[in-house]
Amino acid sequence: MKPIIILGIESSCDDTSAAVIQDGILCSNVTASQAVHANYGGVVPEIASRAHQQNIIPVVHEALRVAKISKEALSAVAFTRGPGLLGSLLVGTSFAKGFAQALQIPIIDVNHLQAHVLAHFVREVTVEKVFPQYPFLCLLVSGGNSQIILVKAYNAMEVIGQTIDDAAGEAFDKCAKVMGLPYPGGPHVDRLARTGNPLAFNFNKPQIAAYDYSFSGLKTSFLYLVRDQVKLNPTFVDDNRNDLCASIQRTVVEILMSKLRKAAKNLHINQVALAGGVSANSALREAFQQHAEKYGWQIHIPAFEFTTDNAAMIAITGYFKYLDNDFCDLSKAPYSRVSNTI
After folding, report:
1. Residue 24, domain extent
2. What does the pLDDT average to over 243-251?
3. Judgement on whether residues 56 and 164 belong to the same structural domain of the protein
């Protein structure tokens, strides 16, 4: 039987990534990152899209080389259609369409958020893995998203809770910026928090209805505390940076886990997964372990290489859609936003 080989392309933000999956097994996953954005304190869309244009051909070439698969052997090309930065998405979408047309193979459009969830189903030859069982809850946390997703099937996902303002990753980054830490701030906050006192400072934890989140009040209370303390002591941030990082991290994790815990209890679900860039945070991973022990959750935490934007998650989503003959026509354009049903 002819193998099913999917080339996945991810270009939703500032990482250009390509991956090859054969019959559900990962053969390669190559990513080119754009360090230039650190100079601006955040991703600059125009710079990101231009960098994608430079990176996409070398990245795809390397993914095929590492996988030891010729382009003629591909069954389909899967690509991120959205949500994300439109300029960046246009590069990946246009390349996928042209590449697939040249090879006379179908294209498969992938929802970026759905792919983050399905990253849990990426199989690697050398790694033993327990896959989530449907239905399960997935906490998707990143710089742009904070969502609780009810996953009933690979193609049946419902966002039951989400931030009404800032995302958790954005809160980390903005608080880090106030403390003079480089962008992206999340990893620096995590690193410094390990030697800080998480109970040193208390910050606002908004009470939002149902399973939704809010992080703008937390960010504002952090800013006000730092502003007021610096007036009294100009070296306050330098003197307390580790404690500030530990305290803000504790607060963010508590906010995230309280709503997830509530959803798991109300829906009687003990299969709980974590996804997105903030899933690399050590305190959040530890909280998942603690909840597994206390509440009997069966938890699923992604390997670090599948936390940030990557094409392996695009390719595995494309593989599932290929099995269902769920293809995309050339008229489909990328989109920047998405509804509550993924």
Report:
1. 5-127+306-323
2. 98
3. no
